[in-house]
Amino acid sequence: MHKSVSWLALTLLIAAGACTDLSGPAPSGDASFGVGSAEPVTVMSRNLYLGANIDALIGAEPGGFEQAMLDAVGQLTRTTYTMPHRLQYIAMEIATRQPDVIGLQEVTRYTMYFGDGSDDVLDYLQALTGILAQMGQPYDVAAYQPNVSLTLPVGMLGMAAINYTDGDAILVRRGVQWRDAASGHFVNQVTMNVLGNEFRNLRGWNAVTVKLQGHWYRVINAHLEIQPFAPYQEAQAEELIAMAAREPHPLIMLGDFNSAANADAPPGSMTGSYASFLAAGFADLWLNQANMGAGVTCCQAADLSNAVSQLNQR
Could you tell me which of 86, 95, 94, 96 has the C-alpha nearest to residue 48? Predict the structure, then answer.
């Protein structure tokens, strides 16, 4: 999901839900180099959280779908009520640290269709960038990739249906030079089922090249499949590794990789993806953080109602 190391020609940053500074000698043409310069390069990765646990909707039988939808809408009602506050806190963190590049996952867009023919839209990306602009800390949306999009019947709270569109995005701080933005979907995708209708649970990636401290870096942002579908997730990780191998610039990778990196993580939260990145010569920069703690980034209650943090895996 959610480092002194020996730097290889490609460098991976796994920094879900945190700001991380990359500092050291400027890169050279040698196969071993430092990332950053006397002035650190700062990046952030943040999963905005779609606002509800929709797992129960996937594969639900017709008799159980109504209760699963009731639970999901209840969670979404509570989390969207607090969404402006959550986004304001995220924006405050961004404004304080002023990261050069931000990788965002679960950049969600909801369209609620009501029985009277009206609709309402909640767009996380538009809301967050709007708050940042109001704070005088504008960020450019350098890359955005919509992923899975589902329209589901609701039949409660005045709603006839709701459309959920997941996405990933890269934001670049206004004034930072960037180019060559790209986005795409992985080849390996899980096929799921809702009310007898099959769909591909599209997962994707973004990439952009940025000029920081006089040097060009390639930044890739991705959200891999969840742990119960580990073979697909691990195949997606291999796609990223192959993509990285073709890059001519030092590489910073951000994302929610859904592969726990801490040895005391709960059973079932670890997959082979984290080890694959390390075996490919990437470095986990969290391990080189000042005042390093556990760095756990997952997981809270589905409706975010827990007063005590439940985070237990990085």
Answer: 86
306's CB contacts (< 8 A; 6+ apart) are 300
Average pLDDT of the residues in 284-311: 82
The dihedral built from the CA positions of residue 296, 91, 37 and 244, taken in this order, carries a sign that is positive
Which residues, other chains included, contact 27 with Cβ-Cβ below 8 Å and sequence gap of 6+? 33, 34, 35, 215, 250
**For 135-270, where are the alpha helices, taking DSSP H only?**
230-245
Neighbours of 61 (CB within 10 A): 9
pTM of the model: 0.86
Task: Tell me how crowded residue 214 is: count the other CB atoms within 10 A of its CB.
Answer: 8
* Mean per-residue pLDDT of the chain: 84
Burial of 4 (0-12, 13-18, 19+ CB in 10 A): exposed
Instruction: Specify the higher pLDDT residue, 263 or 11.
Output: 263
Q: Output DSSP code: residue 22.
A: E
* Higher-pLDDT residue of 223, 42: 223
In the chain, which residue ranges form alpha helices assigned H by DSSP?
A: 62-97, 124-134, 230-245, 273-279
Structure tokens of 48?
């905005």
- pLDDT over 90 (residue 18): no
Q: How many CB atoms lie within 10 A of CB 121?
A: 10
